[in-house]
Amino acid sequence: MFANVGVSIGFIRNGRLRALAVTSLHALPALPGIPPLASVVPGYEVTSWYGLGAPKATPAETVAALNAAVNASLAEPAIADRIRALGAEPMVMSPSELDAFVVADTQKWAATVKFSGAKVD
Predict the structure, then answer these.
(1) Which of 21, 32, 53, 88 is the most buried (most CB within 10 A)?
(2) What crossing angle do the helices spanning 95-116 and 60-75 adopt, rounded to 10°?
(3) The pTM is what?
(4) Which portions of the chain are predicted below pLDDT 50?
(5) Per-residue confidence (pLDDT) for residue 5, from 0 to 100
(6) Is residue 81 a contact partner of residue 90, using CB atoms and an 8 Å limit?
(7) Dihedral sign (CA 31, 35, 37, 39)
């Protein structure tokens, strides 16, 4: 899994956009000198992420094999460096850690939507 700052990094690097801050909790090596917004608004974090899922009935051995392969790929220096160059950060996790991450992220955004007062029409 990896978190991502998006396609805007190319525009920032070529000078078409001026970045004021990144929305990850920490500064990104891919964008040196751009502070995290959390340095002004403590705890502020908005990132996108990608993960690999499988149907609930997938055998545990298959899930473990897929997880091992994905984590090994993310640990490969060439792959990890490319992900970082794109402004993202590899996130090596176990299936249970990913489950907990998804639950926490869902709860965070559910609370955000509730606080906003947004309603489905």
Answers:
(1) 88
(2) 80
(3) 0.80
(4) 1-3
(5) 58
(6) no
(7) positive
Q: Tokens 């000198």 sit at which residue?
A: 33
Give the span between the Cα atoms of 65 and 51, in whole angstroms.
15
Structure token pair of residue 113 = 């939507």
Longest distance between any two alpha carbons in the chain, whole Å:
48
> For every residue of the chain, which 3-state class applies, written as one string?
CEEECCCHHHHHHCCCCCCCCECCCCCCCCCCCCCEHHHCCCCCCCCEEECCCCCCCCCHHHHHHHHHHHHHHHHCHHHHHHHHHCCCEECCCCHHHHHHHHHHHHHHHHHHHHHHCCCCC
66-70: Cβ within 8 A, 24+ apart: 67/94, 67/95, 70/1
Domain ranges of the chain: 2-96
* C-alpha distances in Å from residue 70, one per residue of 1, 17, 19, 25, 86: 8, 33, 31, 24, 18
Which residue has 């939507």 as its token pair? 113
How far apart CA 9 and CA 15 sit, in angstroms, is: 10
